[in-house]
Amino acid sequence: MRWQACHALPMENGEDNTDGGEDNGKETGPKRADRKRKNPRKITMSHLENVALWYLERFQATAKSLERVLIRRVYRSANFHEADPDIGIEMVKELIARYREVGLLDDRTYAIARTETLYRRGSSLRLISGRLREKGVDPEDIDHALNALRERLIADGMDENPDIAAAIRYAKRRRLGPWRSPERHRALAERDKIKDQETRDMGAMARAGFSRDVAMRALAKNSEDTE
Predict the structure, then answer these.
(1) Nearest to 153, CA basis, from 128, 130, 120
(2) Where are the domains of the chain?
(3) Which secondary structure element, helix H or strand E, spans residue 148, and what is its range?
């Protein structure tokens, strides 16, 4: 089997946001179908600011992700009121620049915090980098966040590839390899399906962004050694 470490890129809205902790485009509370959708308001700087502050109170956001939210508002309003969207877009860019200047938006701090969160959940460095790119984080800030993680791990005494520890956490969470339940292992053995399951386990690790070498080393661990 040709090995290809990869991961699916979630959609902009309504995505299956498995890393959690951020806006996933899904509303809570009453279902949309049970409420009348309000007509879009005309775009003003005051209205955009209210939307932006509401959003930032509820979700972690990068400059680009907030910009996308606001620009969608602009286009929806412009279509309804038959207005020029370029005026609203300029307002959005001005607001984003001001928020970055005063520190309400700080992509570097966001990237560092998000990297730590995803790593603790068992995400590979490749997947973390991809998630940050999706949120519009600059490559320089992504590199800074990944380097900060590596430095923190070295300071904590980790001298191996950081992906190995993440792969072990991922395998434990998914109950792959040595973390499969004894009952499941016996059932596979009775049907002579151990090898087939091992292949599927490796496929799951590849889709999570782990290299073949890292996946093999993680799945070869004894579950008792990582307690």
Answers:
(1) 120
(2) 40-102, 107-155, 162-226
(3) helix 139-155
